[in-house]
Automatic annotation (TrEMBL):
Protein name: UbiA prenyltransferase family-domain-containing protein
GO molecular function, one term: transferase activity, transferring alkyl or aryl (other than methyl) groups
Alphabetized Pfam families for the sequence: UbiA (PF01040)
Keywords: Membrane, Transmembrane, Transmembrane helix
GO cellular component: membrane
Domain of life of the native organism: Eukaryota
Subcellular compartments: Membrane
Primary location recorded for the protein, binned into one broad class: membrane
Length: 290
């Protein structure tokens, strides 16, 4: 059992930091923002239950999509370069076993989605997952960026819907989800720098491989600055309350520039930058509460 659970965690290890934790914060903080998002003031004691529900559901969605993605021979070859510790390249699981596991996870997630009241958005997520992993959606830079942004939009929407339990999403909630989706859409290429070697080996087009480091890094820094200052202004948050967002944004920019000046061994810095980017995204989640 411990070996099996360890295997599941290895499938989703990266997503714990860039999806599960940030969007748990986003969903719960948004649900408890009250009048800012035109929501009722939920009792504080219910927050513990909702944090657990949101965290577990996001992790289950990540498990589904990571098994689907990592089971393909091309993904195994790429991971053997970028992430050899993952279950498939490390030999913990074979392709046929992964397919069987995916089927079981799909059935379980469908039942849980129905119970949580998010079956419709889970079905959309599963369709987009199939487009990305099985119909070549990840091989083109444009479709890859759109599908990644759509997935993150679904993560944010699902997190908020689960955190709200039976309360419907308000217009302000949808606007907030849309804003976070635009943040992801315009900065998601932060993940491409660390995976450049594997992407080139696979022949995958990304913003980095098409336009080069200078353009990709400059656009990332620009958009991080725009969102770091623009979103707090949107919610009327002063610079003191938004100082964490500003500092994290500056650190993302610093690491992006630092890696860009290095001719060799820049991957560890790009990995740190991507983790910092995930923290920066997480720091945006509490904005409606500030």
């Amino acid at each position: 059992l411990a070996y099996f659970l360890h295997t599941l965690i290895l499938f989703t290890y990266d997503q714990l930091f860039d999806v599960v934790l940030p969007f748990t914060i986003f969903g719960v903080c948004s649900a408890y923002s009250g009048s800012t998002l035109n929501l009722p003031n939920f009792p504080l004691r219910s927050i513990y239950c909702r944090v657990g529900l949101v965290f577990i559901w996001l992790w289950m969605m990540c498990l589904q999509v990571t098994i689907s993605n990592q089971r393909h021979p091309s993904s195994i070859a790429e991971d053997s370069i970028n992430k050899p510790w993952r279950p498939m390249p490390s030999g913990r699981l074979g392709i046929e076993q992964a397919c069987q596991l995916l089927l079981g996870v799909l059935l379980l997630n469908g039942l849980v989605a129905h119970w949580l009241g998010v079956l419709d958005i889970w079905m959309l997520f599963t369709f987009l997952m199939t487009v990305y992993n099985d119909w070549g959606g990840s091989d083109n830079s444009f479709t890859r960026t759109l599908l990644n942004a759509a997935a993150f939009a679904i993560f944010s929407c699902s997190a908020l819907q689960v955190a709200l339990l039976d309360h419907p999403m308000t217009r302000e909630c949808w606007e907030w989800v849309t804003a976070i989706t635009l943040v992801i859409l315009t900065t998601i290429h932060a993940q491409d720098f660390r995976d450049e070697i594997g992407d080139r080996a696979r022949g995958r087009s990304t913003l980095v491989t098409i336009f080069g480091h200078s353009v990709a890094r400059a656009s990332l820094i620009l958009m991080v600055f725009i969102w770091s200052f623009g979103l707090p202004l949107r919610f009327g948050v002063g610079w003191k309350a938004a100082v964490v967002i500003h500092l994290l944004g500056l650190h993302v920019a610093y690491l992006t520039v630092l890696a860009g000046t290095m001719r060799e061994n820049r991957v560890p810095v790009d990995k740190r930058m991507y983790r910092m980017w995930a923290l920066w995204v997480a720091s945006l989640g509490p904005l409606p509460l500030l």
